[in-house]
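Field notebook, page 703. I keep forgetting to write these up properly, so this time I am using the form the group agreed on. The chain and the ligand, 2-(butylsulfanyl)adenosine, are recorded exactly as supplied. Prediction of the bound pose follows.
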Amino acid sequence: MTHKEAETRHAELAEQVRAHDYAYYVLANPTISDQDYDRLYRELADLEQKFPGLITVESPTQTVGGAPLTEFRPVQHLTPMRSLDNTYSQAEVREFVDRVQRLLPGEPLEWIVEPKVDGIAINLRYEKGVLIIGATRGDGTTGDDITANLKTLRSIPRKLKSHDVSLELKPAETPRLPGLLGTIPDVMEVRGEVFLTRAGFAKLNAERKKVGEETFANPRNAAAGSLKQLDSSIVAKRPLDLVIYGLGFVEGLDGESPQRHDAVLNWLKSLGFKTPEKTWHCRSVEELIAAIAELDELRSQFVYETDGAVIKLNSYALREKAGFTSKAPRWAIAYKYAAEQAETKLEGITIQVGRTGALTPVAELTPVFLAGSTISRATLHNAEELRRKDIRIGDIVTIEKAGEVIPAVIGVVLTRRTGNESVFEFPKTCPECAGPIARSVGTSAENAGVVWRCTNPDCPAQVRGRIEHWCSRGAVDVEGGGEVLASQLVKHGLVRDVSDLYTLTFDSIARLDRMGEKSARNFLKGVEASKTRELWRLIFGLGIWHVGAGVAKLLARSFASLDDLQRASLEQLTEIDDVGGVIAKSLVDWFGEERNQQLIERLRAAGLNFQSALYDPKAALRSFSGKTFVLTGTLPTLKREEAASKIETLGGKVSSSVSKNTDYVIAGEEAGSKLEKAQKLGVRILDEDGFLKLCGGGGGIET
Ligand code: IVH
């Protein structure tokens, strides 16, 4: 075969395989037998092996990428991926419609209702019809580049169909935008949800169980876990699929523009995407409520799990007028179906000790199938809840599961009580370390004061939890440092706090159970790699109460280094937007403890990155804007002009007299009446030291 002949044959075969992939994976309507398909596919693959020059990114053979990645590259979406606000009742749907109508007075409103697929949101970017990047939602602006993983999904077109497929559409779907059908824009983002079918999930879990691997709690977790794999050959084995429900950025449509959502869905379908299998077109609240009810009836038959209905305005022009809040569009909303409930027997109660020492009673249940997965454990929240609901061992209890929320016991079926049930005795000491426990404030408003905590900071359960949290992907991300390893490291006394991870040697860990040489080396590599993580990950990883990933990012934006954060005062911390008194106090308390200071020194000695790449001096600057300062007395080192200049560079104002509008008085020696007045008015007073702390580490700020 000459190269020219090979090229022609390759093009033919690629087109045929692509068409059959579409028929099989998107339309679920194959037109040839599996054998015939395999024959075509093999011929294509053989040809590419003989003539590797013919392989292109869009070839249907290129489903599994090359070598496993070491990490996912961040990618910025061309337009942000927003979330949806939730509603839970008909009344709230009504309120939503009224709200939109108020934003669009006099406009007739048409809605589209779609299933809310319970999977993982993704963004696909096509340029000139070729898939360039596939990414997770991430924080809405930037996601992980998971192109290699997404390319393993046969229902994601690598190349968009450009021929007119209107003939394939049923008459009822006659497009309202014939101009767009088959049109391929220069750049386009499409958004959808990747999911694992219920059947695929059951099969995957059965296989994992057989080989002793941990099973996934539900299809959504399994889909998330699959997309997080760095090795796309593993992803290729997972039965993932997707639904595309909308557009992101679009450019280069030759004068046409998307005008209605229903037409856009038809257009997306014409390009080869799998779109929602059923949608409803509604013109009133009544029609919306009927559609929501109908979807509820149907959804158990869908191959994916749905946790609600999404209501969207059909007209793009009206969407634009309605606009967005910071988080979600004003023109769409999710209606969440009530959590599913089941009844089962409470066989026993165990106590779990978390990383903050909290003792959580856990219900051990007769396994029961609920909302797509088998539940054998559920949370009982805390001792108080147990007492209040009078839950006894042997009771038939009602459990509930809503979406991603952990299943919970919500009550006892009293009519089924026999009298043979027994009251659970809440332990008087920590079941993990036998250490003392104390009632303490909870970490959230709901459980303030009702949580029993183990007060021994060296309690193995807490240490284990802290290690696991540090290693988790959302925090410092130490590859291989999961639950099992954390527990072994603690059990064998190899690790007492997270800094000990950095002193582990091959010899010390290779002896652990089930630790092969390769895993040991990989883990040590993971530990080494974790030294250069961004500062916010480290801050989050420390597990300080009330400091989640979001707060950690805010802190890393406001402080140049961990040292600056450590030195920060309560006042300085509360100056940061969205950091309230509770968070600030928690930080100051944590950094004030000697063992934590020692921990930080050990992390420093291990060579961890303490500098913040997110640090934005302007973010710190903004903290002074609109604030008024009064200087009085003689400061120990700063001249008055220096202090004034610092305040002004940071966006503040210097005033000569104290009033109730004064935010701070900076007082030095021999401060007189101004200080007195400030004291009387309750104005915040700082000495030079406090003032310098407030200025925020000084990084990058000129005086
Ligand atoms: S539209 C700006 N449509 O639900 C509008 N979202 O809770 C963005 N989801 O982040 C979303 N099915 O991941 C839309 N038919 C559907 C959906 C859907 C599932 C997910 C999506 C979104 C989340 C919001």
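OBSERVATIONS:
- The chain has a mean pLDDT of 88.
- The pocket of 2-(butylsulfanyl)adenosine is lined by residues 82-84, 114, 116-117, 121, 193, 245-246, 276, 310, 329, 332, 334 (CB under 6 Å).
FOLLOW-UP: compare against the apo run.
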